[in-house]
Amino acid sequence: MTVLENKIVTARKLHRCDFCHSIIKVGEQYNYCSIVGCDGLYHFKSHLDCTEYAKRIAPSFDGISEDDFQNQVQEDVEIYSIEKNTIHSMVKEIISIKESKECT
Ligand SMILES: [Zn+2]
Fold it and tell me: Is the four-CA dihedral 62, 64, 67, 70 of positive or negative sign?
C-alpha cells in the first residue's frame, strides 16, 4: 500500500468520513488521502479529528482499518466512561480527554 497524497482540503460538497461514517459538511476541512492498494487507487476521506485519533492508534496510516478504528473507539468509550453519541463526537471527546491527561 502506497500513499500518493495526503493533504488537508476544504469540502466543496458533502462527504462521508471513512473512519466514523458521519457526514463531512460543506466548508469543513478534512483529510484527503490517495492510496494505491491491492485493488488499485482509492481515496480515503476523514475528519481531522478522526485522522488525529487514528494517528494515535497507529502512527503510520497503513495499519488502521475502519474496524480497528471503531473497536478502539468502543474501548476508549468504556475506559473513559463517555456517553454514547455519534462516533465522531465520541472521538472528539476522547481526544480532548487524552490531551488533558498528557498535559498534567
Ligand atoms: Zn470521522
Answer: negative
Tens-digit pLDDT profile for residues 70-83:
999 999 999 999 99
96, pLDDT greater than 90:
yes
pTM assigned to the model? 0.86
Domains and CATH numbers, the chain: 2-103 (3.30.1740)
Distance between Cα 91 and ligand 1 center (Å): 8
In the reported structure, the alpha carbon of residue 72 is separated from the centroid of ligand 1 by a whole-number distance in angstroms of 14
Say if CB 61 and CB 42 are below 8 A apart.
no
How far is the centre of ligand 1, averaged over its atoms, from the C-alpha of 86 (Å)?
10
